[in-house]
Amino acid sequence: MVLSQAQKKGRNDQFYYSKNHLQEYLLDSAQQRLNAAFRTRTKAGRIRQQNEAKIIMAAEIEFAQNGYKGTSLNAIADRAALPKSNILYYFKSKFGLYGALLADILEMWNQAFSDASIDSDPAETLYRYIEAKVAYSYSHPLASRIFAMEIIQGAPHLEEFLAKDLKKWLDDRANVIQSWIDAGKMKQVNPHHLIFLIWGSTQHYADFSTQVCWALGKKEYEKQDFQDATDTVAAIVLGGLGLTIPNIAR
Q1: Could you tell me the pTM of the whole model?
Q2: Which of 46, 83, 99, 227 has the most other CB atoms within 10 Å of its CB?
C-alpha cells in the first residue's frame, strides 16, 4: 500500500494531534492522580505555566542523560535557569518532578486514541494514532526514553499509578477495536496485541534513535524520516487489517 499523491498533497511540517473533544477514559485517572500527587495545588497562572514548561524541559534532559538516581534538582535548576526553590514550590520534590514529567507523557500519549469510539472509522482512527505516536517520538524523544527506562526497570517509582489504570485503559481500547471487528469493519486480530504492535513500532524511533540513524547513514533524524515512518507503519498495520490509508485533509 502506497500513499497516492492526493493523500500526500497538503501535508505540512506539523504532525497531527487530536486535542479537541477528548473523552476522559480510564487511563486519564492515572495522569490526574499523578498530577494530584506530585504537583502543588497553586493556581496555574501564566508565569507558573512558563516556569513549569522550562523545568519540565530541563528535567527531560537531565533524567534522560543521568537516570533518576543520578539526577539532582540543582542540575535541573541550573539547566532551567531558575532557582531550585521554584522546583520545590511547583513539584514538591525530585520524585514529584519525575512523576509530573511522566504524567505529561501519559497525557500526550493517551489523547491520540482515547476519543475513539465504536462509531469511529477504524482506518482513520488507527492512522491518526500511529501518526501521533510517531510524531511524539520526533517531538519528545527524551521523554519517551525516560518512560521506557521506568517500565524496563519494573516501574519502581510509578507502579501504583500505572499498573491498574493502564490495564483498564488498554482493555477499554481493546473493546473498541473488537467492536470494529464484530461489525465487519476490519479483519480479526487480537486487539491487545495490535495496540502493543503500534506501541513498539512507533516508540522504536525514539527509544532506539541511535540505531536507526546508524542504519540510515545519518547523524540525526530529518522530519521526512518520521513522515516515512508514519506512512510505512500505517501501510503495514492498516493493510494487515484489510483497511486502506484514509485520505485525510490536512
Answers
A1: 0.73
A2: 99
